[in-house]
Write a structure and sequence with these properties.
Elements: E1 2-6, H1 14-17, H2 21-24, E2 27-31, H3 39-46, E3 51-53, H4 63-66, E4 74-76, H5 87-92, E5 96-98, H6 105-122, H7 124-132, E6 150-154, H8 158-169, E7 173-177, H9 183-188, E8 192-193, H10 196-202, E9 205-208, H11 222-227, E10 232-236, H12 245-253, E11 257-261, H13 274-277, E12 281-283, H14 292-310
């Protein structure tokens, strides 16, 4: 019988997010709820499966892993883009790659960016810990008001534009920059175009909303972080490699900036990671798209994709990459 692997259900929500019975009638399903420790572990676990339904790109699929999956015939993406999955090589191998819609992922990611911004500005995590420890305000940081401050946005696409509206609603002055952004496009989104250097020097909060590509990898490097105001907040809900991680860690350790992060070079974030030990960080475990409304779209359409492929009429097939 066909074997289907449902990967990386870290929050254990996949079963409740869709009706799996149409697929269970056709195949044996295995839900993986913990991350693989290594590529070797992933290869050993996944080698017998005909269909893999991934959860975003929590497990990377480079060519080296794909070559160790001899039974694989269909690969299901959640969303339509995944930088850590070699889609072109899957297709070259003859694997059918299907995708899903993103659901309200723009809204959910913009909202977690706002949550991180507010939590960092008001010291919410440390204040919560202080209250729970019986110290109440003792040890709770004073924080600062965002109204009247400057929000700098790297990227003004669908997510960045929504965060710009949040900044305006808070009474912030909103600046924006990206390689392709124009003065007119920035104004349409309620922001003022600024050079990269000027944005970093003026912003009290910098929030990153760029797509990771060879051109944007490391777009915020050590010299860029050095331009930021002391005490400024750097929010990243996009992709970790957009920011030079060693430079970010150094700045946070020295207390020059506050890092409010939802994405990391390695996920899950390892115990003992330098960012965990720094008091001036706010860390969430990649929650940008991790909401019930998005999961329902991911898993309901993932089931539809697998059932359709098994029936010989695949749907939502990704065009050749």
């Amino acid at each position: 019988m066909t074997r289907v692997a449902v990967l990386d259900d870290w929050q254990r929500v996949a079963r409740a997010s869709a009706d799996w019975s149409p697929l269970e009638a056709l195949a044996d399903l295995t839900f993986f709820e913990t991350p693989f420790a290594s590529e070797d572990e992933a290869a050993a676990a996944l080698a017998p499966f005909d269909i893999i339904l991934a959860t975003r790109e929590r497990t990377p699929f480079p060519k080296s892993l794909i070559d160790r999956l001899p039974a694989l015939k269909m690969f299901g993406l959640t969303g339509s883009r995944a930088g850590k999955i070699d889609i072109a090589y899957l297709q070259q191998r003859g694997v059918t790659v299907c995708y899903t819609d993103g659901g309200p992922g723009v809204e959910s990611t913009a909202e977690i960016a706002l949550a991180l911004m507010l939590a960092a500005a008001r010291g919410v995590p440390r204040s919560d810990a202080s209250a729970r420890a019986g110290r109440f305000q003792q040890g709770a940081p004073t924080g600062f008001v965002l109204a009247g401050k400057t929000l700098g946005l790297f990227g003004l696409g669908r997510i960045g534009a929504r965060v710009a509206r949040y900044g305006n609603a808070l009474g912030m002055h909103v600046l924006a920059w990206s390689q392709n952004l124009t003065v007119e496009r920035a104004a349409e989104a309620g922001a003022q175009f600024a050079s990269k250097e000027s944005l970093l020097e003026q912003a009290d909060v910098v929030s990153v909303h760029l797509v990771l590509s060879p051109r944007t990898r490391g777009v915020i490097g050590a010299s860029d972080i050095a331009r930021m105001k002391r005490g400024a907040i750097l929010v990243n809900t996009s992709r970790a490699p957009l920011i030079d991680e060693p430079a970010l860690i150094a700045a946070v350790r020295e207390g020059r900036i506050v890092a409010a992060l939802d994405v990391y070079e390695r996920e899950p974030l390892p115990a003992g990671h330098p960012l965990v030990a720094c008091p001036n960080t706010v860390l969430t475990p990649h929650l940008g798209y991790s909401v019930l409304e998005v999961y329902r779209v991911f898993f309901e359409q993932g089931v539809e994709n697998a059932v359709a492929w098994l029936g010989g009429n695949p749907v939502r097939v990704l065009p050749p990459q």
